Amino acid sequence: MRLVYPTHKQVSTLQAWLGLCCEVYNAALDERKSAYRMAGVSLSYESQCAELPGCKRVRPELGEVPSQVLQDAVKRVDRAFDDFFRRVENREVPGYPRFRSRSRYASLTFKQYGNSFNLLPGTKGNKGTLVLTKLGHVKMIMHRPIKGTPKTAIVKRTQTGKWFVSISVEIPKEEALSSRLPEAGEAVGIDVGLSTFAYLSTGEAIANPRFFRAEEAAFARVQRKLSKAPKGSKKRTKKRKVVARVYERIGNRRKNFIEQEVCKLMKRFGLLAVEALVVRNMIRNPKLAKSIADVSWSQFFGRLQAKAEEAGRQVVRVNPAYTSQICSACGHCQPMPLSVRVYECPHCGLVIDRDHNGSKNILVEAFIAVGRHSRVIPEAPGL
C-alpha cells in the first residue's frame, strides 16, 4: 500500500464519490432483493451495469464519478451474492449481503491502468504521483518501486482520515520464479500460544508482544472521553477519530510484527507445520477471548500461507488434538491442564516445556501427512 496526500479539494471529491458509490451499491442490492422477492428473477451484473447510463440521467451527479468506479460498486454486490451462495453450498455460516452505511464504504477501485489511473515517478527520493481520471494528480509516497505491469488501483480511506492506494501488478512467471527465495531443506513445527507467541520445534520461542494489553490503558482513557462527548456533536466526531487512531496504532504494530516473523521463518525453513486451529470457536471462551484476539493467530496463519506460496515453501496444517498431551520422545499420552507449563513424562523421564513438546509433535504429524515419516506405536511399560 502507498500513502497518498490528496488536497482538501480532492479529499472532498473523493468523499463525495464514496457517498455516491455507496448509494449505487445499496440501490443495486435493493434491486436484486426486490426482483427476486416480487418476480423470482435473479439479476446479473451485466444487466445492472446496463442501467447505469439511465441512472446518470436521473441523478446527474453520478456522471462526476468515473464509470469504472461505479461499475465496481455493482460488481461488489455481485461478488457478495456469489460468496453468499458459495457459503450456503459449503454449509458455512451464509451471511446474507447487507446494506452499507457511508462509514463502511471506504474504497474506490480504478480498474484500468493507462485509462482510469496512471503512475508518474517522482524526481525526489520515494515521492511519486498518482493520476486518477476526473480527479487529477495526487501526491504519493512510493515505499518501493513497482515491479511488473500495473493492473488495478484501489484508493482507500482509513477511519482516521488517511488515504492509501493499493496497486496490483502482473509479473511474468519467469520473473516471479527467479525472485523466489533459495531452497531450504530444514523443517519446523510451530506451536502458537498465549504465554509465548509461538514455540518452534528447534527450541526457540517467539515472545508475545501483547500490543492491545500495552495500549489498554490509553484506549480506556480515550474511550471515556468519547462516551462523555455529546452525541451528534463535532467534539464526539473528533474523539471518535482519536479512538480509531489507537486501534490503528495497535493494528499497525501487530501487522508489522507478524510480517517480520513470517519473513524470518520463510528464509530459514522449507516446510512449516502449524495447527489447524478454529480460532472463531476458541475466541468464545470469555476468560481468554481478549488474549486470543490480541495475539491474532488467524492473521499469522494467513500471512504464513500467502508468503509460503509466494516463496515456494510448504505449509502443513495438522490436527491440534493431543499435541500437548503426547510425549514427543516416547509417545506416552497424559492429561495436561493449561496451568501446567512443563511436560514431565513418567514413561521415559522427559522433562520439556509444554509448548516445545507440542511443536515437536506438530512437526511429526506434518511429516506423517506428507509421507516423510511413519507413526511409531510405543511399547507399554515393562515390556
From TrEMBL:
Entry annotated with the keyword DNA-binding: yes
The record's listing under InterPro entries reads: Cas12f1-like_TNB, RNA-guided_DNA_endo/Transpos, Transposase, Transposase_put_HTH
The terms under GO molecular function for this entry are: DNA binding; metal ion binding
Question: Which residues are in the Probable transposase IS891/IS1136/IS1341 domain?
Answer: 166-284
Do you know which Pfam families this protein is assigned to?
Cas12f1-like_TNB, HTH_OrfB_IS605, OrfB_IS605
What are the record keywords, sorted?
DNA recombination, DNA-binding, Metal-binding, Transposition, Zinc
Where the record annotates domain Transposase putative helix-turn-helix, the positions are 4-37
The answer on whether this UniProt entry bears the keyword Phosphoprotein reads: no
Question: A GO biological process this protein is involved in?
Answer: transposition
Cas12f1-like TNB domain span: 297-362
Q: Which family is this protein grouped under?
A: In the N-terminal section; belongs to the transposase 2 family.
What is the protein name stated in its UniProt record? Transposase, IS605 OrfB family
